[in-house]
Design brief:
The complex is a heterodimer of chains A (118) and B (151). Chain A is mainly alpha-helical. Chain A contains five helices and three strands. Chain B folds into two domains: 115 residues, START domain (Alpha-D-Glucose-1,6-Bisphosphate, Chain A, domain 4); 32 residues. Chain B is built from four helices and seven strands; from the N terminus they run E-H-H-E-E-E-E-E-E-H-H. The two termini of chain B are 17 Å apart. Classes of the chains: A mainly alpha (118), B alpha+beta (151).
Chain lengths: 118, 151
């Protein structure tokens, strides 16, 4: 397996929590809403949800922590918006692991095919 | 359908028994994977070693062997891409790597999967996001397309 640039480790470290952060339906529905491309206040995000404002805030924090969502201040109000970059990076991370497997398996192929019993 | 995983299928022009040995004999595994392992693989046991890939000799190999079903199935859990000695990867949830062997007319079909990059199947998440036309949904589709093609 080829292990590429060392900085990948740091990136990899940042990606696992993204996958984990996405593993929740409330957060996904929040992202789906934010994905429309606008900025939303906590009140707007709480609207039409069974959850309390407090619970929504908690979920937003999780998304903020992995930087999928950022908070921007607009006067006295806090508005939330989506950031697509981390998801793209998470995909790149999977890409790198996938490429490592390609290399490892091509090594395996040469290895087992080199010495035929016949 | 489970789509949040990496899946590789490779046709090997070698008998199943040959492939099985290359996968599970620790010395042979070390040859093609480029790792020097301390000892044989054993189900339920930790396997330790040192990567031998040039430039990455400082990287330790540590996986937990899960199952070994002779000539059919071999699996282990590990922390992928754990290349930075300063980071303690043991606190992260490991991924599961599985090797499935199948006899074919020409030799062996080997299916390798790596799963567990997140806890719930991503397709359920994608389903939720697909309902929106926003950019986020597009990003997730990119991931889906990526995992669907198996990398």
């Amino acid at each position: 397996m080829s292990l590429k640039e060392g900085s990948a480790a740091a990136k990899r470290h940042a990606h696992a929590p993204i996958f984990a952060a996405l593993g929740d339906e409330t957060r996904l529905s929040l992202l789906a809403k934010l994905g429309r491309g606008q900025r939303y206040s906590i009140s707007q995000l709480t609207e039409g949800s069974q959850l309390t404002r407090q619970a929504i805030t908690k979920h937003l924090r999780v998304l903020e922590r992995v930087k999928v969502v950022r908070c921007v201040r607009c006067g006295r109000e806090r508005l939330f918006e989506i950031d697509h970059q981390p998801v793209e990076e998470a995909r790149d991370y999977l890409d790198r692991i996938s490429e490592q497997w390609n290399q490892a398996l091509s090594g395996l192929k040469s290895f087992v095919e080199a010495e035929r019993p016949d | 359908m489970e789509s949040n995983r990496i899946e590789k299928r490779i046709e090997l022009n070698a008998a199943v028994s040959r492939v099985w040995k290359a996968l599970t004999d620790y010395r042979e595994f070390g040859e093609w994977f480029r790792v020097k392992l301390d000892g044989p693989f054993k189900a339920g046991a930790i396997s330790r070693g040192q990567i031998t890939h040039p430039g990455y000799e400082h990287v330790k190999w540590e996986v937990v062997v899960q199952k070994m079903d002779p000539e059919h199935y071999f699996s282990f859990t590990w922390h992928p891409y754990a290349v930075d000695p300063k980071i303690d990867y043991s606190r992260e949830t490991p991924t599961l790597v599985e090797f499935k062997l199948e006899k074919t007319t020409n030799g062996t079909l080997l299916v390798v999967t790596e799963s567990g990059f997140e806890k719930i199947p991503i397709d359920r998440q994608l389903e939720a996001l697909r309902m929106n036309d926003g950019g986020w949904a597009q990003q997730m589709k990119n991931i889906e397309a990526y995992v669907a093609q198996g990398g």
